[in-house]
Sequence to fold (513 residues):
Amino acid sequence: MGGRVRRYRRFLRDAGAWARGRLPRGAAGGVRRHRWFLGVLGLGAALRVVTVLGYRPALWFPDSYTYVVTAIKPRPDLVRPAGYSMFLRLFEPFHSFALVASVQHLLGLLVGVLVYLTARRLGAPGWAAVLASVPSLLDAYQIELEHLLVSDTLFATLVMSAVCLAVSRATGPVSPGSSAPSRAGGLVAAGGIGLLVAAATLTRTVGLPLVALFAAWLVYRARGRVLAAGVMVAAALVPIAGYALWFHGTYQRFGLVGANGVFLYGKTMTFADCAVMKPPPDLAVLCDPRPPAARPPAQEYVWSKDSPLVRLPGITFTEENDALAGRFASLAITRQPLDYLGSVLSELARSFTPDRPVYPDAEVYGYYEFPATPPPPPGRYPATVGADFARRYEQGPIDARIAEPYAGWMRAYQSVARLPGTAVLVIVLVPPVTAAVRRLRRGPAGVSGGSAGAGPAVWPLPWATAVSLLVMPPAVAEFDYRYVLPAVPAACLAAAFMASKPSLHNIPRNVRI
Fold:
């Protein structure tokens, strides 16, 4: 009874403060405590409002039109999973790509909030948590990516939601004396993690390895108990298997997409030497006589009409062509493993360059810049068909309209506000290097990283997630600047966990500042 009375009195006090136009005592303290983050968050929100005002209704990428077609006519796509298309379908009744772009900007802000709150909850100092959120909230290329109608913002949000849930709710060891509600809550959290990872995988297939990564994490955190990991894996695989059945019902073959072999073929053509591989006659038709140094980027072997694969009968992504391309790629990797490794590392290194050189070509590179003039309408056949569907979705014109001075402000901002690749490299190196140094200085007890000294370290999961997202594209397809951005929040969160608060225990009180 006394507790209810106290809560009622607190409610009346807070309501009175709001009525007088003042913050309640607790809210005012929270604003002061998080004032630096709230300032960064407010600036990030303002930049996104300027972007929405400057580029209406949204910005387009060649992939955007395929996503819209699948949203209007739901069916699995041979090249991309349908997760993002289902996201678009949720907003179809509103007939507004501007609304979709606005929601994506909100998701971008959410990622920054998740990074900050998770870092603070697990013991990172305030300055480290704020810095960890800055790339997600203020990087101009991140904001531009959110305004593009592509899957990366949704994918990054799902991945970071899974990471933050995993390190916050389902990470404690399960002791024999744990209460039943505690164990049940851990299993529910594990199921939620699995569903988030599944949704990420069905948005971009590069998320599939995260199923194994998160399962290993749960086993590691639970000191060898596998029940939570089993629940997570089951929750992830059921939706993924259901999508694979849907794909089979459409194309009579199992999979999430039908282009894995094709993209891996494009990857291997950056180094494949048929004189070394000695392929059988049916694979030799895919050889390129030019030396690797004289060849175009990997994507040209997937889309260009001059590609040996594209010149084969039928569409590029038939089951037969995809299998043939996959066999060629496997032979190239097994016969030239060091060349494959070198190709992966050289592509990965593009993530860490101090400048931002044009790659893979000027057209693709230009899509990641805020434009000064309206982009031209699509010219290739699939995109022109997709544009018709997009006009049906919008129930009006879809051409990007540029409004000054807002667009000019964002172009000027983008010229100075970006996260350099060298900074990404430093952020990725901070957790393992810091952990190694602490282990050498203090032993295994000095590397907990964000767990306040209790239990195993929490940094490995976000760090391994970031590394996986950075490595997978150049390993199975090719590097692209937009593939780097979803990895940055996880890397920043891992780095924030390694920032230790200064200890005052050994400092006399009379000399503390």
